Amino acid sequence: MALRAAAGMHPRSLEGARVGLPNTWHGAVVRHADEIVGMGRVVGDGGCFFQIVDICVHPEHQGRGLGKRIMADLVAAIRERTPPGSYVSLIADGEAHRLYEQFGFAPTAPASIGMYWRP
User: Fold this and answer.
1) Which keywords are on file for this protein (predicted)?
2) Which of 16, 37, 48, 49 has its CB 3.0 to 4.6 Å from that of 58, i.e. a possible disulfide?
3) What is the pTM of this model?
């Protein structure tokens, strides 16, 4: 929760984290002096659909390639463990699309657009 806040990400409830984190399909963390300074997760149904979420690096550790290391770990797990034809998506905030493009992700527009709803 502290890393999300430090990186300027939208806050999540403690209750939501307690339910959601154990359902992570694959996760990656980067530690510095026993502190988590970077993270990323893959969530999904385990067969057809996967989403990369929670990619962030603490501002004091940005610009060192940690985001790229996290993405490389997540993409490697996806390539190794998902069935053929799986669909992997993510939402790119700000300039993060530049990182994701390095791993083969492409905008879906104009064929489709991402949408969200917060109940």
Assistant:
1) Transferase
2) 37
3) 0.92
- Partners of 90 in beta bridges: 52
